[in-house]
Design brief:
The protein is an alpha+beta fold and about 270 residues long. It has ten helices and ten strands. The protein has one domain.
């Protein structure tokens, strides 16, 4: 389990993140159905496989074109154990659907798309972004990522990763836009079903200091998560997750809400939910 080895960088992310709930703008969110259609239907006019150093799953960087619209995308078909971790391209799509279901607004449009006769996930690349890892190496950028308001997206990311059982969040799979909005990518190691992901959640008071753990959360996000029903999750993720994986989501949901309740009891509801 990679949680311990990446906890430090995740906490660093939590300390430099946030701007409310959705990090995509209202206009970008409204365009998601159009981008989903584009990803499915657009022609692949250029493709290049990324090196292992750029992505453990060695995804493909695609250039897609439909009419006059040209955009880049990331395509994956990873399945099975790679580098000691279970990978699954369907988890990329499931994470995007969960993002939409809860109104998180931080995961780029992602659909199933065939390439060379093989099914895989195809995610819209967000232009004008940089990896948080790269920004952290630049002193001037670190200063710009230091405001109090900027923390909130990090707490939301912790909340989301807890629900989807993400064992691999680090600064190499967080994108930052030019105006310092946070975009979450690379979810092929999510929806875990091991004991530690059913009887516990990745980020809790067991491994994160109280002041850095989901310290502020949108009330609407918490309420929507509490209202999630297993039939609704099953319908939304049909064909993407197994019954066991869906059961694990619901188990983590309950544990996550208990964790949020402990945070509220510690700091007071008015100081946690907004």
């Amino acid at each position: 389990m990679r949680i311990r080895s990446t906890l430090r960088v995740v906490l660093a992310f939590a300390l430099v993140s946030g701007q409310g709930l959705a990090q995509f703008t209202a206009r970008e969110l409204a365009q998601r159905p159009d981008w989903e259609t584009f990803l499915r239907q657009a022609e692949i006019v250029k493709q290049e496989q990324m090196a292992f150093e750029q992505g453990v799953t060695e995804p493909w960087r695609l250039t897609l074109r439909q009419g006059k619209v040209v955009r880049r995308a990331i395509w994956k078909d990873a399945m099975g154990v790679r580098g000691g971790y279970l990978e699954g391209w369907r988890y990329e799509i499931a994470a995007y659907i969960m993002d939409k279901l809860l109104g998180v607004g931080m995961v780029p449009p992602t659909v199933e798309k065939a390439r060379a006769g093989r099914p895989g996930s195809c995610q819209l690349w967000i232009d004008g972004t940089a990896l948080l890892r790269d920004l952290n190496r630049k002193a001037a950028k670190r200063d710009a990522l230091g405001s109090e308001a900027w923390k909130d997206a990090g707490y939301i990311a912790q909340f989301f990763d807890n629900l989807i059982g993400n064992e691999d969040r680090h600064t190499g799979n967080v994108l930052v836009t030019r105006d310092f909005r946070t975009i979450l990518i690379d979810h092929s190691r999510t929806f875990r079903v091991g004991q530690s992901f059913v009887e516990g959640i990745p980020f809790s008071d067991k491994n994160v200091p109280p002041d850095e753990l989901m310290r502020r959360l949108p009330r609407g996000l918490v309420d929507r998560t509490a209202a999630l029903s297993e039939p609704a999750v099953r319908k939304a993720l049909e064909g993407l997750l197994s019954d066991t994986e869906i059961g694990a989501v619901m188990a983590r949901r309950d544990l996550l809400l208990l964790e949020v309740r402990k945070i509220i009891d510690r700091f007071g509801e008015a100081n946690v939910l907004y």
